[in-house]
Write a structure and sequence with these properties.
Cytochrome Bc1 Complex, Chain D, domain 2; 57% helix; globular
Amino acid sequence: MNHPHLFALALGLGTALASGATQADGNVEAGKIKALPCMGCHAIEGAYSVYPSYRVPKLSGQHSTYVIAALKAYKAGQRGHKTMVAQAATLSDQDMQDIAAYFASISE
């Protein structure tokens, strides 16, 4: 059975994902500014925090939905890292989308 409309939908979705259209709700340029406080830790490959000791994830190229979900979880207190809870506490949904779009736009 041939479904050309399903093929066209799948092709369009694939093209949208490949072009970064998943960042449609976030503004990369605004995110670049809003992410400045994040860069000291999350832009360094293999960074570690001394206290408490943990590996800091590098976020360049990370999928925007992951970054948004993580920020929302910190803001809701569902993730317990004190610095990230404090950072996320003041972020609006738009701020999170912008920051996520920026990190997703960075290629390695």
